[in-house]
Specification:
about 300 residues; alpha+beta; eight-stranded antiparallel beta sheet
Length: about 300
């Protein structure tokens, strides 16, 4: 959260918007990125607590918004605006983080060393692309991220500060006045721990709907499923799409198919009907509109930000 999102990603965007001349984008380029981000408002799945905002609001972006840009919106909105060299440089960070955020241990461990090489490339090239003042402690720290994922044998989601930051919101609700706030929180938490009746309701990990932003899922066989109807027995009438009928969003530093990030172009639709259960829906997918009229399919790799 602090090193990558609030550290490196924010610094990269600041340098692109108001940094040295070597990397600063023109007003037209910044406006183009902002317009694309604003066009995605309402398109992000319900799991996201915030929808994309324009670059002129960058100073007010939260860590979740910076993560959203790194993993999902950035690869889409930067593709035709940044120079090919800088776009590939950004993708090296995005791909590496996507690998280390992978929840499947076998997949993550298989590509962990590759993620390390991508981050080394990102760090080594950033001075040439963004100026000698760009590399700071947070940037250098990227080189060692793979060590944490390897040592604890878990996704970086399990080592992130996001859950602790999110829980602060619940803690603040227990403070009723400005007098003795710590005592208030302690009493309320103690009461909750010793209470026999739990008032919390189980929340679903994902939200499945026929709405466009919540209907797309990745299946375990790497097919994409689009929910068309929710049945009373808990099943879903879906249209499924094999990845061979899609095309990659990018092919460098690797094919986006490695991360199951694919583009659904106009005229490529070859879907089959299928009846699926909730357990068949492996991973939620952000289905974002593309300039050409198609869609970019990006599987979610982080925890749920928003509770329903």
């Amino acid at each position: 959260m602090h090193m990558v999102c609030l550290g490196v990603v924010r610094r990269l965007l600041v340098y692109l918007t108001r940094g040295p001349k070597i990397c600063r984008l023109s007003v037209r380029q910044r406006d183009a990125i902002s317009q694309k981000l604003v066009a995605l408002r309402g398109k992000m799945p319900s799991e996201f607590a915030r929808q994309p905002r324009a670059l002129h609001e960058l100073d007010r972006w939260k860590a979740t918004e910076l993560r959203q840009f790194l993993l999902y919106t950035g690869p889409v909105v930067l593709k035709t605006v940044l120079s090919p060299e800088r776009y590939r440089h950004f993708l090296s960070l995005s791909v590496a983080m996507s690998i280390m955020l992978e929840s499947d241990d076998r997949t993550r461990n298989a590509y962990l060393q590759y993620a390390h090489e991508l981050l080394k490339h990102f760090v080594m090239c950033c001075a040439d692309l963004y100026g000698k003042t760009f590399p700071v402690y947070n940037v250098h720290g990227l080189i060692h991220l793979h060590e944490d994922a390897g040592h604890f044998n878990c996704s970086l989601n399990d080592l992130s500060c996001f859950p602790f930051e999110n829980y602060l919101q619940q803690i603040k609700k227990h403070v009723r006045s400005g007098r003795s706030p710590l005592e208030q929180v302690t009493r309320r938490l103690s009461e909750m721990e010793h209470s026999e009746v739990s008032t919390s309701k189980k929340k679903p990990e994902v939200f499945a709907s026929v709405k466009e932003r919540d209907c797309c899922f990745l299946l375990r066989d790497d097919r994409f499923a689009f929910i068309r109807q929710k049945n009373a027995d808990g099943t879903f009438a879906c249209e499924t799409l094999h990845q061979r009928h899609t095309s990659p969003l990018f092919d460098q530093p690797c094919s986006s198919g490695l991360l199951n990030i694919m583009c659904l172009r106009n005229g490529q639709v070859r879907m089959k009907n299928a009846l699926l259960r909730e357990g068949d829906l492996f991973r939620k997918v952000a289905c974002l509109p593309e300039e050409t009229g198609g869609f970019v399919l990006l599987p979610l790799r982080h925890g749920v930000e928003h509770k329903y």
